[in-house]
UniProtKB/TrEMBL annotation:
Residues 112-345 form the Radical SAM core domain. Reaction proceeds by a ping-pong mechanism involving intermediate methylation of a conserved cysteine residue. Its cofactor is [4Fe-4S] cluster. Signal peptide: none annotated. Keywords: 4Fe-4S, Cytoplasm, Disulfide bond, Iron, Iron-sulfur, Metal-binding, Methyltransferase, rRNA processing, S-adenosyl-L-methionine, Transferase, tRNA processing. This is Probable dual-specificity RNA methyltransferase RlmN. It is an enzyme of class 2 (transferase). The gene is rlmN. GO terms for cellular component: cytoplasm.
């Protein structure tokens, strides 16, 4: 494991300026009109941000000096300061970023045979309260604006630029509940997917939710081709309520109704994330119950051997039992895989690095 720490902080001016990455292309055209500028400058700004990845407003040389001054007056270009950058033996890189108000978030670069994937954060902390997750320690501090989510991908891409690589896929599974910050998350998706933005294909982007049911219906009606996942982790209401307090507000049967609506409306397969916790939800009878729960659905089960979190009491399911759980599901006709472990030596589980380094935030 390699760990680098840096010092310094973001200028406090960021507290009164919007992130330049927050605007979608049509919003840039509207803003430019309001400023008395030509709307076609929007494409030039996007080119500087997402293709050339400008490090300063002065770099934007084909924009007039007056427009560059307006941009500097209204927007901030740098919204993330790297506190720690950890590199795993398997090539995974975890970033701990500080924001303009001193709070921190995590972003992870994962290297696969098929390309480089970035896991982004949508909130500082989380209010959902899952009993196995480090992200929820200390509760929710605030939502990220769209530009703060976009900036995570840009920062990782700037790291990859050094080796002529690119971000090829994105998962919205970092700290926070994406559907609890829905509008900013949606704007982020559109910027990532736009051909003049980061140009990441919709089918190379995955968003996950713990189960905010009204937003699932809303997301289905967006009719986007984004991959969609549900953090399930239990095959019945009683156990899920113990693991995930959100299940007390949004019951499992109602969640499954929303999932069926999504599948029927979009025609797309849905994924269920199922973390295996030793002696809690990992028995053969749980697998059989899970198979019954998803019967008839166009879906995929992603089994996740959990990382040990010191602040939580859950332990890892033994490998033999993980394979038995998988085999039981497969024998019952369920499409299932075991997630490949990455970054095990660098606190790569969601929220672990922040909990370790920023105890005052997660206390």
């Amino acid at each position: 494991m390699k760990q680098e720490k840096t010092t310094g902080t973001i200028a406090t001016e960021a507290t009164v300026k919007r992130s330049i990455y927050s605007l979608q292309l049509n919003e840039w055209r509207d803003w430019l009109k309001e400023q008395g500028e030509k709307p076609f400058r929007a494409e030039q700004i996007y080119d500087w941000l997402y293709k050339k990845r400008a490090a300063s407003f002065e770099d934007m040389s084909n924009l007039s000096k007056s427009l560059r001054d307006k941009l500097e007056q209204h927007f901030v270009l740098t919204t993330l300061h790297t506190i720690i950058q950890q590199t795993s033996s398997d090539g995974t890189i975890k970033f701990l970023f500080e924001l303009h108000d001193g709070v921190s978030i995590e972003t992870v670069l994962m290297r696969h045979e098929y390309g480089n994937s970035v896991c982004v954060t949508t909130q500082v902390g989380c209010r959902i309260g899952c009993t196995f997750c480090a992200s929820t320690l200390g509760g929710l501090k605030r939502n990220l604006e769209a530009g703060e989510i976009v900036a995570q991908v840009v920062k990782v891409q700037q790291t990859l630029d050094e080796t002529d690589e690119r971000v090829s896929s994105i998962v919205i599974m970092g700290i926070g509940e994406p559907f609890d910050n829905y509008d900013h998350m949606l704007s982020f998706l559109k910027i990532m997917n736009h051909e003049k933005g980061m140009n990441i294909g919709a089918r190379h982007i995955t968003v996950s939710t713990s189960g905010i049911i009204p937003r699932i219906y809303q997301f289905a009606d967006e009719n986007m081709q984004i991959n969609f996942a549900i953090s399930l982790h239990a095959p019945n209401t009683e156990l899920r309520s113990r693991l995930m307090p959100i299940n007390r507000a949004y019951k499992l049967p109602d969640l499954m109704d929303a999932v069926r609506y999504y599948v029927n409306k979009t025609g797309r397969r849905i994924s269920f994330e199922y973390g295996l916790f030793g002696g809690v939800n990992d028995q053969v009878e749980h697998a059989e119950e899970l198979a019954q729960l998803v019967k008839g659905l166009k879906c995929h089960i992603n089994l996740i051997p959990v990382n040990y979190v010191p602040e939580r009491d859950y332990v890892r399911t033994p490998k033999r039992q993980i394979f038995q759980f998988e085999r039981t599901l497969r024998d019952l006709g369920v499409n299932v895989t075991i997630r490949r472990e990455q970054g095990h030596d660098i606190e790569a589980a969601c929220g672990q690095l922040r909990a370790k380094e920023r105890k005052e935030e997660t206390r």
